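In this section we walk through a basic example: taking a raw amino acid sequence and producing a predicted 3D structure, encoded as discrete structure tokens. The instruction is simple. Fold the sequence below.
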Amino acid sequence: LGTLSSAALLPFVVDGNGTRTGIGNERSAAVIDNSISGTTLSVSCFLFGANGNLLGNDTFTVAPNELKTVSDVVRALSHTSGVQNVSGSVAMFGTEVFSGMASVVNNASSDPVFIDGSPVGGTTSGFVSTVGTTGYFSNVIIANASPTTATVQLLGYPAGGGNAPAGGTVVFVPGHGQLNIIDVVNRMGLPGTFSGQLSWSSSQPIGLVARDIPRVGQTVSGLLPNHTSGDASSNEAVAYVEDTATFSTALEISNPGPTTAN
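The resulting token sequence is shown next.
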């Protein structure tokens, strides 16, 4: 359930019914895991909207070994009862170490995606191994962890590699605000057939979430892991692969560096 810490950032939470442009028909819950501290903890949560404004806050008590779910976390923190049609991020601060995550559920299909909490201080560079898949568009959400506007460069590198990106763009995210890019491949000026690596760098620390959404139906398919350069390694182990009549496993190898890897 994410990285153990006394503070965490949930880069993306949402409460929508599909009637507002840019806000999907989905809702979020926050999950707080207190399986390590051995004592009762309090977690103060602050909800920031896309423009960076504080939309609400509250504090939750979590017993030792409790896995606490805050349902409809946008409504819980804004102290409202009806659908809000907003998305944002949540900064979480605990009195002890904990692990935090968000679940995002499509209201129509009940398809869930689980987003681990990020370091509350954010990071300034990283990569997503693959964006752009046939039949899907890649949705990227950027949450600014700082109070200062972030200038974020997004570059798309072709699957065949090389030092020259195939396309890119620069976006601006207000302090504590959020930018939801529905189709990042299109935003980078690339054709819908593009599939490759997304590399990003930011002038301020951010949290980034990427996910694939089917072009037809637009229910969430799954989370695309966001990595930092420190996640890359010269040796890796894949814990499980399968080749059966029902499932088969494909192996994707991504090189975030400028030198050819063998």
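Looking at the output, two observations stand out. The mean pLDDT is 91. The radius of gyration is 19 Å. In the next section we compare this with other chains.
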